[in-house]
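Box 3.1 A note on notation
Throughout this textbook, protein chains are presented in two layers. The first layer is the amino acid sequence; the second is a token string describing backbone geometry. Keep the layers aligned when reading.
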Amino acid sequence: MKLADLRKLSIRKNLKIRFQISNGMECVITEHGVAQVPALSRAPDFNLEQELVSIPGFLLEPAVQDPKRPVAALRVTREELAAMVAPAASSAAADHEEE
């Protein structure tokens, strides 16, 4: 699972994906597929792609909330998130093979 996979998932499902990186900061992948580290005030001394390898859990939340029907954020493990990303990758490969 790569950062690009999470970006595609966040756009496709209209989600914000949050996870803690090793230095204690939080990374948020927005519904637009942009990876942000809000607490970052200077050039990073880390690589998000490398950090992603060791992340055990993620928090998924809808990008848009209905005030009348709020939806709680969903905690998922790395394996569960990989399963959500995998169907998109396999269907894209199948689409490519049909061409």
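Residues 3-98 form one domain. Residues 78-98 form the longest helix (21 residues).
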